[in-house]
Specification:
This protein has 325 residues and is mostly helical. It contains 14 helices and no strands.
Length: 325
């Protein structure tokens, strides 16, 4: 008699149901609802009546032409650029030092924990810490400037737009360079050690190994780091919102996420405008991520794939012709 086969596939679907249901309720539905609201006149949580606009892109036009949104977008890119460039450079340097086989650093575990520690601290705690450091009229920075004779009167640091932006950028850099370092270290440890042994035999220096072995083989991890940093940078909210009251002087620290929050939960509670701004940022991030993928692609690998596809196509055509003879 034939044994009846037991299928366990249904149990996999059953076990995945809680995640699917939770995802649909708390992620998929809010995303779809947000997209829909961008084309309506919906305002306020208590307003149950809303309609689709005659001009479906009215909210998007209002957001794109709003001077405040342009300021927020410029601030977002500026603050992200100021913190990402030093972040990736320092993370690469530390990753290269910690993974260098020739001169092993003692106490690597301790240093890695110390560098990664700021990433564990909550954003609210960090904002309170730096708000106290640059406090007015009394604070450690003001005490330092007064003691050193650099200033006769207390300085309101966070009321200077460039200082406020610089502090926010530094906080973002300080909180995330340790995380970026850990990701890069894991990427470097995944590179085939034989490549470094071959480079040693050929007489390559440590610097040459870094630029000609490490960086090319770290391309995938660098793409991941750049894209995740881009997404995190363009959606930063906690530090700019908590550190400086009302986004500082002339909206110096106003970011797009803070702008969206203000549209939805301040003033006239314009959920439709906030939804439209969210969609605009989603599209912008998607386009920039696609550009990053295109720029960071290995051109030789792309050319090799195209050549393989061409050969496969020719082989299929040859097989079809052979079958008709």
């Amino acid at each position: 008699m034939k044994k009846k086969k037991i299928s366990y596939a249904k149990y996999g679907y059953i076990f995945s149901l809680p995640f699917v249901i939770t995802f649909c309720i708390f992620t998929l539905y809010p995303i779809i609802f947000t997209v829909i609201l961008g084309f309506t006149d919906f305002k306020g949580l208590g307003n149950v009546t809303w309609h689709f606009l005659d001009n479906p892109f009215q909210n998007f036009e209002a957001i794109l032409t709003a001077p405040t949104f342009k300021t927020a977008l410029g601030n977002t890119f500026m603050i992200w650029g100021w913190n990402f460039l030093p972040q990736i450079l320092l993370a690469l340097l530390l990753a290269a030092i910690f993974t260098n086989v020739r001169n092993k650093v003692k106490g690597q575990g301790f240093f890695k924990v110390v560098f990664y520690m700021p990433n564990i601290i909550t954003a609210a705690t960090v904002a309170i810490l730096f708000g106290a450091l640059f406090g007015y009229p009394m604070g450690p920075m003001n005490d330092l400037f007064t003691t050193m004779g650099w200033s006769d009167a207390p300085i309101h640091f966070l009321q200077n737009k460039w200082i406020a932006r610089g502090v926010v950028s530094f906080i973002q850099f300080w909180m995330w360079y340790g995380y970026t370092m850990i990701v890069l270290i894991s990427g470097i440890l995944g590179i085939n050690p034989e490549l470094y042994e071959a480079a040693d035999i050929d007489g390559a220096t440590t610097v040459q190994q870094f630029f000609y072995v490490t960086i090319p083989n770290l391309r995938t991890v660098l793409i991941y780091t750049l894209v995740t940093s881009l997404i995190g940078g363009l959606t930063m909210f906690d530090i700019p919102n908590l550190l400086v009251t009302k986004s500082g002087p002339n909206n110096a620290t106003l970011t797009t996420s803070v702008f969206i929050y203000n549209q939805a939960f301040s003033g006239s509670y314009m959920y439709n405008r906030a939804s439209a701004a969210s969609i605009i940022m989603f599209v912008l991030i998607s386009i920039l991520s696609a550009i990053v993928f295109m720029l960071m692609q290995d051109k030789s690998e792309v050319a090799e794939k195209k050549e393989l596809k061409r050969i496969e196509k020719e082989m299929k055509q040859a097989a079809k012709k052979g079958g008709t003879l």
